[in-house]
Design goal:
Largest interface: A-B, 26 and 22 residues
Oligomer: heterodimer
Strand order of the largest sheet of chain A: 5-12-11-7-8-9-10-6
Order of helices and strands of chain B: EHEEHEEHH
Strand order of the largest sheet of chain B: 3-2-1-4-5
Helix content of chain A: 40-55%
Number of strands of chain B: 5
Strand content of chain B: 25-35%
Shape of chain B: globular
Shape of chain A: globular
Radius of gyration of chain B: 12 Å
Number of helices of chain B: 4
Largest sheet of chain B: 5 strands, mixed
Number of strands of chain A: 25
Radius of gyration of chain A: 30 Å
Number of helices of chain A: 30
């Protein structure tokens, strides 16, 4: 018997997806494989997704795999590779949840006037949806309909097996037909449960040994696993009970015909569907063209139903059960998936408010779409390419969809894992050329085989090592395995004719290693020539900078390498001599260690001197908070998980490279990572744009006719202009100020204002309503102009406050007010404001 | 009349400066001499010196929060109003001074 111990890496715990990945690996081997959680002492058959999930394994749990059987060695090698290379990335492309806080949300006064019922809940999927309520008819729990008694065991078993077969084929069809990768993934996870040996054997046992009818056996088995899932510490795992019940219902339908469930298929009208619970498969039966929103009871943020709603862009909110029951069918609803609430029978003012919200969301998504197609640049025009890290061709689609400008890292080892023989040249060629073609000219960097020591392959006899991370791995074994590497290089050379492929060599420490790869590449090209197979004549060969030795040796390595890419995860681990997986080391593994920043600076400096392109493809590259430091380094590319691309691109457009360079210099002089982290936070909060006013912050002739609408509209303009992170947060601060005393000046002018952490840049926004309206005071002249001032919470004695003070003073002069109110168009307003700010 | 004034408001972004401007404008129109210190988000600006205070006949505090360094005015007659009053009705405020 052999044992592999590891620390569970995923934040969401061992849920269905990683469990089915693990089960897939295990199924390739004959050996018995037991999973053991050292924290709660639960055990599971590693071939049973359900038992794995029911183990209640959470992030950081000490775990162990016990393998025994004839092929235990090979199984152990495959599993080690899986634990290192695949498992930690299993959740990389999970859509991020919306605000999970569940805190009481602040609402503008408009919501509190008593005319409308507001039901606070929790946002499951963002967006605003309005339509009449439709209550979904639920299926009855089936097994209750069958009294226990003596049954024909054979018949019941046959009934169960046939039902499973039918459902399996249904799920397979669904998985293949769904475009959305998340939706298809959920179907595959369900497929995993239905073919799960733990699940099946338990049902069969209940039928065969206890003479239970199939329906009852299914019900009891589901109840059994649901119990252990509900006991789990992880919310995510508790929510998997829905998946189980979903399957039980579907299986029941297959066994006994259609249940009482009537999926909602409205003839013509759109609707908001309400349901106490909604399973993923029920959601899929709904007509999504007419579905405006979902109001659900007791559905969690990480439930598959919520993930599906986010994937399909259906606004969704979960409400407490009692609140849900208060909504009657056909009542008009607004589902607010932004703030996490439902408005029942909204009045016209509230509808207008939500039209503004919808308009903002529409404009924001248009902005994102535009951003996707634009080259990534900083505010001062410095280019910094944003690329994606991928492990398989399935991830290409999401990468391009999110606006990747290239693939900065294709981990080719995933092709080599979990199999008994290495992939052949043609198989690899198919994969690499698919990547090359889909790039349509955008560069795709393929990292050559990065395996060894810790991640073993059955067909690659590498020695067992004391310290695999410092051992015989990656490029270090290439000399001993020339055929394996040449085969990969031939496939890449051939595929490179279909696009822009580059080669990247992992774990380089000495020059000779790069020369070796070049020799192998020449040999591979010669072999192809001999076979008269067309291939690229020239290929760029780059190296991963992930050992401190390489980091201080770029001038020499640059003689053989065409480009460099910093593998920040390994480089940090080797540089700080701190294992990232070791929880005891606490904060030691810390990319903001000033020493690490100095190392990066040194790397960037050498790369520049060597006139070589420099990228980064570790985790550090994808965090928008680190971006100022990375822009300050002057890198050429950052490569990250696809989902992180839009956020990083947006942030990049707000940064100026010279300010970032100065920030980096100061950060390198800090005494510890806490100081760097504080400095970075201040910087990130600071004003990033030179102008207090801009044309997009002015709106004339707007239909707003209440202070609520005007304040919202102005806050939205600031959010769309990138000046404010979250318009709702600013709205709250402005209203709190307004409630001290109204900012209506009495001259037909109101100047709401606020100082808030959500404000990135001191800014003013201006609005002129089509018709003057009453502000908060009773006996005041109606306002004809509203000027909103937003200042960052940390603003102190800065230039922009002076400008705003000057503007405030000018507002006391009638000629200035009249100029603002009578200016013909946006440009004229802008001119009046700019003249005032310049002091003329 | 020689008047000095201090303005201060909760956020110190707008009303502090609007009140200062309004007091200066109205005083000029009425033929008074005035110097206004602002206590806003940028801290104390146009600070009143010992001489300013000694030479003044009267002080106006147009403030919605506590005035800083208040002890400077211990020997002077002070009229205290809210910021809004100074902004919306400065003429009425000045007519009170005359009495």
């Amino acid at each position: 018997m052999m044992e592999i111990t590891f620390t569970f890496p995923l934040a969401n715990g061992l849920h269905a997806r990683p469990a089915s990945l693990l089960q897939e690996v295990c199924q390739r081997f004959a050996a018995a494989i037991r999973f053991h959680n050292g924290r709660n002492r639960r055990r599971a058959d590693a071939r049973s997704v359900l038992e794995l999930v029911a183990s209640g394994t959470a992030a950081g749990d000490p775990c162990c795999l016990e393998i025994s059987g004839p092929d235990e060695k090979a199984a152990g090698q495959a599993l080690r590779a899986f634990l290192l290379r695949v498992l930690p990335h299993a959740d990389d492309n999970l859509p991020p949840p919306v605000s999970a806080s569940g805190q009481k949300v602040w609402l503008p006064p408009l919501f509190q006037n008593g005319a409308v019922r507001i039901l606070p809940g929790r946002a499951l999927a963002p967006g605003i949806g309005s339509a009449r309520a439709v209550r979904l008819q639920k299926a009855r729990i089936l097994p209750r309909r069958f009294a226990a008694g003596k049954r024909d065991v054979k018949k019941e078993l046959q009934l169960f097996r046939e039902g499973c077969r039918e459902l399996e084929s249904d799920l397979r069809k669904k998985a293949a037909s769904l475009q959305d990768p998340n939706a298809a993934g959920i179907m595959r996870a369900h497929l995993g449960i239905i073919s799960d040996p733990g699940f099946r054997n338990r049902i069969i046992e209940l039928i065969a040994k206890k003479q239970k009818p199939a329906g009852v056996a299914i019900g009891e088995t589901v109840a059994h696993f649901a119990r252990s899932l509900r006991r789990s510490q992880s919310v995510y795992l508790r929510e998997r009970v829905d998946d189980l019940q979903d399957l039980a219902t579907q299986l029941g339908e297959k066994l006994y015909g259609r249940s009482a469930a009537r999926p909602w298929r409205p003839s013509s009208k759109s609707g908001v569907v309400m349901a106490a619970a909604l399973t993923p498969s029920e959601l899929l039966t709904l007509d999504r063209r007419r579905l405006r929103g979902l109001v659900l009871g007791g559905v969690g943020l990480t439930s598959h139903t919520a993930i599906l709603a986010r994937s399909f862009h259906i606004p969704a909110v979960s409400l407490p059960q009692q609140a849900l029951e208060k909504i009657k069918s056909a009542e008009e609803l607004i589902v607010d998936g932004q703030r996490g609430l439902v408005c029942v029978k909204p009045d016209p003012a509230l509808k207008r408010y939500y039209r503004l919200e919808e308009m903002k969301l529409r404009l924001r998504s248009r902005q994102l779409a535009r951003l996707k197609n634009e080259a990534a640049r900083s505010a001062d025009g410095r280019k910094l390419a944003i690329a994606a890290n991928i492990g398989s061709t399935a991830e290409l689609g999401p990468a391009w969809k999110n606006g990747a400008e290239g693939i900065g890292l294709f981990r080719s080892e995933t092709l080599f894992l979990e199999r008994a023989t290495p992939p052949g040249e043609d198989e690899q060629f198919a994969v690499y050329s698919e990547a090359a073609r889909s790039g349509k000219g955008r560069p795709v960097i393929i990292r050559t085989l990065d395996i060894g020591g810790d991640k073993r392959l059955p067909y690659l006899p590498l020695p067992q090592e004391e310290n695999p991370f410092l051992g015989y791995r990656a490029v270090r074994f290439y000399a001993e395995q020339p055929e394996l590497i040449k085969c990969q290089l031939r496939a890449i050379l051939r595929a490179a004719r279909h696009g822009s492929l580059k080669i990247m060599v992992p774990m380089v420490t000495v020059l000779e290693e790069v020369r070796l790869v070049r020799r192998l590449l020449d040999a591979a090209a010669a072999e192809l020539r001999e076979r008269k197979i067309s291939h690229a004549e020239r290929m760029e060969v780059g190296i991963m900078v992930e050992t401190p030795a390489a980091a201080f040796f770029l001038d020499q390595l640059g003689r053989e390498a065409d480009f460099f890419s910093i593998g920040s995860n390994d480089l940090l681990q080797y540089f700080l001599a701190a294992d990232r997986g070791n929880a005891r080391l606490g904060d030691l593994y810390e990319p903001l260690h000033p020493a690490f920043l100095r190392l990066l600076f040194q790397v960037a400096d050498q790369a520049r001197k060597a006139k070589r392109w420099l990228g980064m493809c570790g985790e550090m590259a994808g965090d928008p908070a680190f971006l100022p430091l990375l822009l300050g380094l002057g890198l050429d590319e950052l490569s990250m998980a696809s989902g992180q691309i839009p956020g990083v691109k947006t942030r990049l457009r707000q940064l100026k490279s010279d300010e970032c360079r100065q920030l980096l210099q100061r950060a390198m002089q800090c005494a510890n990572s806490q100081e760097v982290s504080e400095m970075l936070r201040d910087f990130n909060n600071r004003f990033l744009d030179a102008d207090v006013i801009a044309p997009e912050l002015i709106r004339l002739d707007t239909p707003s006719r209440t202070p609520d609408e005007a304040i919202k509209e102005l806050c939205d303009l600031l959010e769309l202009g990138g000046r404010v992170e979250d318009a709702h947060a600013l709205e709250e601060v402005v209203w709190r100020r307004e409630q001290v005393y109204a900012t209506d000046l009495g001259f037909g002018f109101a100047i709401p204002h606020g100082k808030a952490a959500t404000v990135r840049a001191s800014s003013i926004a201006f609005l002129r309503p089509r018709r003057p309206f009453q502000w908060l005071g009773k006996n005041m002249a109606p306002v004809r102009g509203v000027l909103l001032i937003a200042v960052p919470a940390t603003a102190k004695g800065e230039e922009h406050l002076k400008l705003i003070a000057r503007l405030s003073r000018r507002l006391m002069h009638e000629d200035f007010r009249e100029a603002l109110l009578s200016a013909r168009d946006t440009d004229s307003v802008l001119t009046v404001l700019r003249q005032c700010l310049r002091g003329s | 009349m020689r008047i000095i004034a201090v303005t201060a408001c909760p956020t110190g972004i707008a009303h502090t400066y609007m009140a200062a401007e309004q007091l200066e404008k109205t005083a000029r129109q009425l033929g008074h001499q005035i110097k206004v210190e602002t206590q806003g988000a940028m801290g104390i600006e146009n600070e009143l010196s010992v001489e300013d205070i000694r030479a003044a006949e009267l002080a106006i505090f147009a403030a919605d929060i506590a005035v800083q360094k208040r002890e400077r005015f211990d020997n002077l007659k002070v009229i205290e109003v809210g910021v809004q009053e100074a902004i919306k009705n400065p003429a009425a405020l000045f007519s009170r001074l005359a009495k």
